[in-house]
Write a structure and sequence with these properties.
The chain is α/β, with parallel strands linked by helices. The chain has twelve helices and five strands. Strands 2-1-3-4-5 form a five-stranded parallel β-sheet, with helices on both faces. Helix 4 packs across helix 6. It is elongated, with a radius of gyration of 18 Å. About 10% of the residues have low confidence.
């Protein structure tokens, strides 16, 4: 039986192009398309897909909120977040909302197909550079992280961080955006951005998601 899919994205050309790619595979079947989060929820309730490909930025109801509602309403449904490279904070929020993984939008057709198949089988967080992420890390990303100092084996690393940097790391692991960090810590967004870049250089990573993985596992994504 083919894997039944819904593509949720507000860009019609992207949806149609992706549909053409996926339907070339005999084990994949696109059963619906949606252009906003509310439509995605209603379509998924009616059609009961195996996997929803969910863009994070959509009108009416964004992909994060739609994911949270879907995984609670439809037991067993899998959601894959569709993201751009600049969406790391939104990807983290999507995972915490219940998504099983994500796909970078400019991934190759082969990567899209591989990730969908892996997610359907229960292999979580399939992505071009985090294909083998430990399930323990997934559980922490999904909301069980209570703070870096209590959940990671990184005493040697965190000793090199200032108190302010530790505060920022804790919020980063919890999926907070730069704006949310700035509001909580009474700093400007530019100051938060500068702190994050400094932290990234210290631990040798280049993105928010890689940093979260590093602080939760003690190792860099490969």
């Amino acid at each position: 039986m083919p894997i039944r899919l819904i593509i949720a994205d507000d860009q019609r050309l992207f949806r149609q192009s992706l549909r053409i790619v996926l339907e070339h595979e005999s084990d994949l079947k696109v059963i619906g398309e949606a252009s906003d989060g509310q439509e995605t929820y209603e379509l998924a309730k009616a059609l009961r897909p195996d996997v929803v490909l969910m863009d994070v930025e959509m009108p009416k109801l964004d992909g994060i909120a739609a994911t949270k509602i879907l995984v609670k309403a439809l037991v067993g449904i899998k959601v894959l977040i569709l993201s751009s490279y600049s969406d790391d904070d939104r990807v983290i929020q999507g995972i915490q909302a219940g998504a099983g993984g994500y796909i970078v939008k400019d991934a190759t057709p082969e990567e899209f197909i591989k990730i969908i198949r892996a997610t359907h089988k229960g292999l979580e967080i399939a992505s071009p550079y985090l294909a083998n992420l430990n399930p323990v890390v997934l559980a922490r990303l999904q909301g069980s992280a209570a703070g870096v100092q209590n959940t990671t084996p990184l005493d040697g690393v965190t000793l090199n961080l200032s108190q302010r940097e530790r505060e920022i790391v804790n919020l980063l692991v919890l999926g907070r955006s730069n704006k949310e960090m700035a509001e909580q810590l009474c700093l400007s967004s530019d100051t938060i951005k500068a702190h994050l870049q400094h932290i990234f250089r210290k631990i040798g990573v280049s993105s928010r998601l890689e940093a979260v993985v590093f602080f939760l596992t003690g190792r860099r994504a490969s």
